[in-house]
Amino acid sequence: MTGYSSVIPAKAGIEDDAMPVAALDPRFRGGDGVTTTRPEPFFEEQAAPATRVRGYWQSVFYRLRHDPVTLVFAAIVLLIVLAAICAPLIAPFDPYKESIVGRLKPFGWRGHPLGTDELGRDMLSRLIYGGRVSLLMGVVPVLIASLVGGVLGVIGGFVGGRINTAIMRTMDVFYAFPSVLLAVAIAGAMGGGMANGMLALTLVFIPPMCRVAESATTQIRALDFIEAARASGARTTTIIRYHVLGNVLGPVFIYASSLVSVSILLASGLSFLGLGVRPPVPDWGLMLSTLRQSIYVVPFVCALPGLAIFITSICCNLVSDGLRAAMDVRM
After folding, report:
1. Is residue 44 part of a domain?
2. What is the pLDDT along the chain (331 residues), one digit of tens a residue?
3. Of all helices (H) and strands (E), which one includes residue 21?
4. Residue 278 covered by a domain
5. First to last CA, the chain
6. Residue 125 φ/ψ, nearest 5 degrees
7. Is residue 137 part of a domain?
8. What pTM, to 2 d.p., does this model score?
9. Domain range for residue 222?
10. DSSP string, 181-226
């Protein structure tokens, strides 16, 4: 016998004129050439273990969980937001209560941890309450601009033609002016105030949001799955809703997150120039403006509103960078 038989005989494991199969095949463990167990196949294919493939958003959250820098700065932003929301509960003093004898006092004076301002008001309480206004003016204009600019960009990018030309050329008019100068001009023309300042920032942020949405929609419009949806008879609104928006929201969200810090800086700048929040409402930019004349008396106290603006802006920027890295599948 020159080799093993591909089929094991049904008899007692013994081939004709040959040695017992058990003597040749080491897998047989019976005695006297008689098999006591069912023989296994000669070759077994080892199946590869099943691999669970993460979805897009699962991959995003996985990357964020393993990004300590983003998590740390996101925690700081969350603490700032919670402090602003819970301001009536954690503020040690009334932010509007004035004291003539307690003007421009240093840290720790009579239970004021961060001193007092030029009217004797507690700085810590005003910083906490000022975060409400600064964050509100930083987030609301970005949300409105993302909604309006995103809708205009998706319509112009998907429809194309004259509609796209009309929308984008109108947006280009706003690009002719620097964002800071445009915000100051609009807020000054409308008379200042918190509502007018938010409206001015919204108008400043709509053109870049529209351009981002239009660029993403133009790239998606020529892809195969869009052509397949058109060939299947789907309406334009259905294609935009189910196929376009899901692919455009990512770039729009990433860019919107990066505009939050810019909006906080511009809102503080408007308040510093007297075109934003009006006194005595606590706002970081307004506090920085009213305290600048006392910088030689209590320099550290006067620097606190600027420090709050800097920390919030840099944390928002770093969180935005982390979100961009987590949501960009090419990185």
Report:
1. no
2. 444 444 444 444 444 454 454 444 444 444 444 545 555 554 455 555 656 666 777 888 888 888 899 999 999 999 999 999 999 999 999 999 998 898 999 898 988 999 999 999 999 999 999 999 999 999 999 999 999 999 999 999 998 889 999 999 999 998 888 888 999 999 999 888 899 999 999 999 999 999 999 999 998 888 888 888 888 888 888 888 888 888 888 889 989 999 999 999 999 999 999 898 888 899 999 999 999 888 888 899 999 999 999 999 999 999 999 988 888 765 4
3. helix 21-24
4. yes
5. 61
6. -65, -40
7. yes
8. 0.79
9. 79-327
10. HHHHHHHHHHT-SHHHHHHHHHHHHHHHHHHHHHHHHHHHHTSHHH
Is there a domain that residue 241 lies in?
A: yes
Beta strands in the chain, from DSSP E residues, in sequence order: none
Q: Which residue type is seen at 143? A: L
Give residue 144's identity as a one-letter amino acid code: I
Look up the CATH number of the domain holding residue 298.
Answer: 1.10.3720.10
> How far is residue 62's CA from residue 60's CA, in Å, rounded to a whole number?
5
